[in-house]
Amino acid sequence: MAFPLTLVLLIVLLLSGTASATPVLTGVNEYLAPQNAARRALRLPPLRWDRKLEAYAQWWGNQRRYDCSMLHSNGPYGENIFWGAGDGWTPRQAVAGWLSERRFYDYSSNTCRAVDCGHYTQIIWRATMRVGCAKVTCFAGAGTLFICDYDPPGNFSGERPY
């Protein structure tokens, strides 16, 4: 049985599109899965990946790749930044670092004990719905930056995250 050329081309295009999309999804899930697990534990809606936020995080990371400074963009979004020495870091490790601040957050007083916990509270901020992240390898072996931007932003003074 002979297949029409258009059907064969369609199958090839579909298969090649699926294969090329897999690495992107894997990277996104490395950021999303642990953050959404933390939100799920608090019965909060999951974050959705946002390409606009991803592009913004990449843009800001590219500004910081020369000095590898953990400076915030002071843009319209909530923002978490992680720095690690060398280049072997993964998105899951960056997110785990932010989530480790959970132990310092005291819900009853709505404060952080001893150490800042704003990365954690941004992740679990109830009103935040979207996230986009980027990884940047800094020049001259200065390390690796991970940046996640959140919309709507959180961490408003005097407000509880959930």
TrEMBL record:
A Pfam family that the UniProt record links to this protein: CAP
Sorted alphabetically, which InterPro entries does this protein's record hold? Answer: Allrgn_V5/Tpx1_CS (IPR018244), CAP_dom (IPR014044), CAP_sf (IPR035940), CRISP-related (IPR001283), V5_allergen-like (IPR002413)
Keywords in alphabetical order, please. Disulfide bond, Pathogenesis-related protein, Plant defense, Signal
Q: Which residues form the signal peptide?
A: 1-21
Residue stretches making up the SCP domain: 26-158
| GO cellular component annotations of the record | extracellular region
Membership in a protein family: Belongs to the CRISP family.
Describe the task this protein carries out. Answer: Probably involved in the defense reaction of plants against pathogens.
Q: What is this protein called?
A: SCP domain-containing protein
